[in-house]
Amino acid sequence: MSRPFSDAERVLLQRLASAAPDAGLLLAQIALAEHDGWWFEGSQSFDIATPDHAPEYFAGRLLSDGRQIGPGCSVRVDGAKPDSDANYIGEIFLWLRDGRLTAMEYYWVTDEMPDSLPRLDQLVD
Question: Is the pTM value of this prediction over 0.85?
Answer without folding.
Answer: yes
